[in-house]
Design goal:
Layout lengths: L1 E4 L2 H6 L10 H6 L3 E6 L2 E13 L2 E9 L8 H12 L5 E6 L3 H9 L3 E7 L7 E7 L18
Parallel strand pairs: 4-5
Antiparallel strand pairs: 1-2, 2-3, 3-4, 5-7, 6-7
């Protein structure tokens, strides 16, 4: 499996398993869409933003084809975004009830920063996490390593 920037046709084809509203071609036009390809088949994607979340890098959407879940694809996609923003704090959010997503982010070293109720259609809380890109002294933090403070 390989993680790379999406092509236009791949971005368009994500509708086959995309669980989110919107059109991933928009993320692709901005250059903010990575896909995971297993041979010729795209099995997952991560859409991210450089500056739409208070001018901070933000993982906006993460989706893996149901038949390919629990194989580390989501982790690899998020890791690709972290690598793109090496040394910077990267933010992400998910619904509080999404146990797999919460476990993924916490397992990768993201730190829970807070939650907002009422953002989702079902009024569940949206939980926000941050991956601290540096240890405070300019040195990179390894995956899963605790950050100071």
């Amino acid at each position: 499996m390989i993680i790379r920037r999406a092509t236009y046709d791949e971005a368009k084809s994500l509708r086959a398993f995309d669980e989110f509203l919107g059109d991933r071609r928009v993320d692709n036009w901005r250059g903010e869409l990575f896909v995971c390809a297993d041979g010729a088949e795209v099995v997952g994607y991560v859409a991210y933003s450089s500056n739409l979340f208070y001018n901070r890098p933000f993982v906006a959407l993460l989706c893996v084809r149901e038949s390919h879940r629990r194989r580390g694809i989501g982790r690899r996609l998020v890791r690709r975004v972290l690598d793109a923003y090496e040394g910077l704090d990267v933010w992400v959010s998910t619904e509080a009830w999404s146990t797999p997503a919460v476990a993924l982010f916490e397992g990768m070293g993201f730190r829970r920063m807070g939650a907002i109720a009422g953002l989702n259609r079902d009024d569940t809380e949206e939980v926000f996490f941050v991956f601290r890109g540096t240890a405070g002294d300019g040195t990179a933090v390894a995956e899963g390593e605790a950050t100071p403070g």
